[in-house]
Amino acid sequence: MSVNTGSGPDIITFGETMALLMPSGGKGLEYSSELHSLFGGAESNVAIGISRLGGHVGWFGRLGKDPLGRMIFKKIRGEGVDVSRAELTPDAPTGLMMREVLMGKTSVYYYRKNSAASQMSPKHLDEAYIAGAKILHITGITPALSESCREAAFEAIRLARKHGVKVSFDPNLRLKLWSIEEARPVLLELAKLSDIFLPGLDELKLLYQTEDWDVIVSKLRELSAVSIVKGGEDVTYVVTADTITTVPYFKAEQVVDTVGAGDGFCAGFLVGVLKAYEYPEAVRIGNLVGSMIVQTEGDWEGAPTWEQVEAVLNNIKHIER
């Protein structure tokens, strides 16, 4: 857990976090009489992952002033994440999602229209809070929620760049929220404004409308950002203006739940960047954290501590008794 030093967080992120209901016993939602109550959201998943790894991180967003919103607020705060800029509003509800895994395939159902988070706008941004950070991390989910959320995402980047704060951007393409035709220009513009671009390979194929890796690399090199491409065949790519570095995955002993792997990667990678690691080494940390998270059910519950990460990196044996 992070320790509050009295200064602002080193990394700030914001977006929608929703309550999550999942069936027990591997049943489908339609046939389950019991549901686990959890929560998840790409940005808060990343924030919790960073905090578990010892980073000083802040998350903000809008939640309904209802039981689900209060539960989420308290649990994120309990993970050592600064939530001083998060808001509980009586004017709109907390978003809800339901998830099931059947025959190895995950399906997610969203109930988030007109949620508190979807009403976020530039007026909910605290310029001084953003200015005090070293990294602002955003995702492509927030601009997909509403026009005002889209404006908030661009304004947050403008404020970060104004104050010399690095911008990290994970497109997190969600085609249940908007079409690829609507998403493409927005996400590509956000990528242009970022310092660190964190796409998946499948996302890049859709955004650039090509399967050709060489064309994708050429497009990435038109950006000013360093691009960290997830989802390669057993490797993550680090693409700069003149180099491509491959960083191998860590093998997961068992895969329980793949949701949250990308967010775990981002958390590990950003902590590596904070520790002033070179990008390939930071990616190695991200790969490891992602592989650890998929071995536990839930979006963020399996996020490791820095001590656990070091134990794997240094091949320290676990003593059971």
Automatic annotation (TrEMBL):
Residues 11-305 form the Carbohydrate kinase PfkB domain. The keyword Transferase applies. The keyword Kinase applies. One of its GO terms (molecular function) is kinase activity. Gene3D superfamilies: 3.40.1190.20. InterPro entries: Carb_kinase_PfkB-like, Carboh/pur_kinase_PfkB_CS, PfkB_dom, Ribokinase-like. Keywords: Kinase, Transferase. Belongs to the carbohydrate kinase PfkB family. This is Sugar kinase. It comes from Paenibacillus plantarum.
